[in-house]
Specification:
single chain; 8 strands; about 10% helix; globular; EC 3.5.4.19; Phosphoribosyl-AMP cyclohydrolase; amino-acid biosynthesis; metal-binding
């Protein structure tokens, strides 16, 4: 059986979690989890992160409706980073974009490559 305590957390008890669209493969966002948020995610099927700014659990989409349904949780080889395959409803980014990774550096210049969703 998998035990969330078996993961390697940073000194604050956190582990980076990268959310990726399970169907299209698009990287949507990165956030932090602790052992309890990993356990809650696996138990409920709704991705739950740890908000460092609010110091509280954050169920993705709880207030916005932009839910992340867990498809699969993957561990990297060092057990210190997670890949969370999800089915995303609406935008993943708080800026109302599909992905948080909407800025690219081209020839030394930052360029926005994705507009907010309507």
């Amino acid at each position: 059986m998998f035990d969330p305590a078996s993961l390697k957390y940073d000194p604050n008890g956190l582990i980076p979690a990268i959310a990726q669209d399970a169907d299209g493969g698009e990287v949507l966002m990165m956030a932090w989890m602790n052992a309890e948020s990993v356990a809650r995610t696996l138990e409920t099927g709704r991705v739950t992160y740890w908000s460092r700014s609010r110091q509280s659990f954050w169920v993705k989409g709880e207030s916005s409706g932009h839910v992340q349904e867990l498809v699969e949780l993957r561990l990297d080889c060092d057990r210190d980073c997670l890949l969370v395959l999800v089915r995303q409803t609406g935008p993943a980014c708080h800026t109302n974009r599909r992905s948080c990774f909407y800025t690219v550096v081209r020839d030394g210049v930052e360029v926005e490559i994705m507009a907010p969703m309507a």
